[in-house]
Amino acid sequence: MNLFEYEGKQMMREYGIPVPESHLITAEDAPAPMAYPFVLKAQVMTGGRGKAGGVKVCENEADYKKYAHDILNMEIKGHKVHGLLAEQMMKAEKELYLSITLQGVAKPTLIASRMGGMDIEAVSRDNPEEIVKMEIDPFTGLKGYQLKYLAKKLQVEDKKDLFAMVSKVQDAFFKAGAMLVEINPLGLVDGKLIAMDSKFVIDGHARHMQAKMDELEAARQELHAYETPFKEETTITYVPLDGDLGLISDGAGTGMLTLDLLNDAGGHVASFCELGGMTTEEVMYRAMDLTLTGHPEIKGVIVVLIGGFNRMDNMALGITKYVKEHDVKIPIYTRMCGTMEEVGLETMKQAGMPTYNILTDTVKEFVHEVEGV
Amino acid sequence: MSILINKDSKVLVQAITGKSGSLQTKVMLEAGTNIVAGVTPGKSGQEVYGVPVYDYIAEAKAEHDFDTVISFVPPAFAKDSCFEAIDAGIKVLVLTTEEIALHDVVEIIAYAKAHDTILVGPGCAGVIAPGVCKVGAHPIRFFKKGHVGVVSKSGALSYEIGKTLTDAGIGQSSVVAIGGGPIWGFTQADAVALYDKDPDTDVIVLLGEIGGGSEEDAAAYIKANVKKPVVSLIVGRNAPQGKSLGHAGAIVSGNVGTAKTKIAALEDAGVHVVKNPVEMVETIRSLMDTERM
To answer: EC number(s) for this protein (chain B) (predicted)?
Structure first.
């Protein structure tokens, strides 16, 4: 779960990480929450808000009225703005970068740089010597020598303050089951470190955080009528694409292989649908429904099944039930093999639905019939 | 020989009385696997297809020798049960469970590594040594004994390629599916290293997919160490940006994790990169002695 900046900063406060005073504003006619000057920051689930005009300094009431109106009604890279964070002005003597991440790495990794306040990927590309990366042992946490090395590389004078900051960030990362805690910039203000921005991502599978995530979501709905994105109740992954052929598979790897084979054969795929760990008749039925109703111009569906954990008898029941109940007229090509295939193939035959065995041949015939290539 | 498991492997099943655990125990026994015991807390004294069940691994260990564990424990309890298995001093732990909290996975991997247990998974289909035994979900009908060693992230893709090779008359020494990520205990590079040393493996098949950098890591290992021919298929070439396609790890963000960079790294390492299963069969045929197929 990606947190908004205001949520991330609240989390940081809970873990004792120093952050500037700030207040969430959700209506443009709300009174100014603090004395001028302050900064207004768009709360939005994407980066680059500064460039897009989503961060403004308010010197007086006229500024505040104008910017609150402008930013609240703005879209940034297609993302709606969900409120404004009015925050105390900070003048940093130095801007650093600090994060602990589990995204794109094999172990919890601390990343830090003296060159904060800018795109860290650009720093990594153009000034790789300015990036400090260290792996964190989950059982010991950062060790003393790692902290000292970090202080040396960041050229921080007040080591005690840095160690306290890093320890609190580490604490937040591990206790909150985070995928990412990122502070950019980490400001040095009057000689003390303070988190001037926040990116906080909680692992959706962190069960001990479930109540917290539910609470955050409920607060979003109350504060700024946030519409929670639709959550599929099954283990299905459904990704809409822009072609006209539906694709269902019972494995991610075979789904991606079939996507490539369809493209190579000249087909255009409308949607990728993978069943995930749950493979009952009902889940197969749901996959058919998502695929056939999810795209208005769908011309045919290819179902690619190879049963290990899942059973072909259940798959066949789900497919045939859906086709019968919805009087499906477009071609449905089913490649079916694996656990309980004898029963599954018989069910398909009884329903008058063709089945195939060799994946590459199935794809070729399917694309040929449906797209005429 | 095969990798990770062989005819002498003695196996314990964690969560043996559950729906998956008991069904997979049945099919593993049918495949010739020597399952000596099972564990489910609170179910001690029961039997599952003739396999005795204990509450704790220590109790099973007092009665039986085993060196390999396969776990079907639900995600909330997976970490502690992995610690229990690793503390028993086993060689290989196959963790099939999906949706384990990532911080738990990090601890399981670190603990296994510190205690010299090979952790395959999480969220994996496991390993089969065709014609010998299996510790995982691979349906035996798709595989036959031979000399191609296969490693895949995806379970289904490893069945698909196993079936394709078997249909073409090409047997396999072992087939391993390591899970969809985003982090792994046993990696593709680890599998390649074992196959390179395995006298029964002539050709290595590396099945990869978009996302992360594990295929690039395997390519670097191959470039520096591997003499045997490696054939690779990378799936997800046509995947959209920023959407994960069924595996948490299978996501392209920016320039990271694209099929293009993986294919380039593998080709640079001298790997034969193919585009589909038909090319895979043709390439393997060109690289192998007919008698070893």
So the answer is: 6.2.1.5
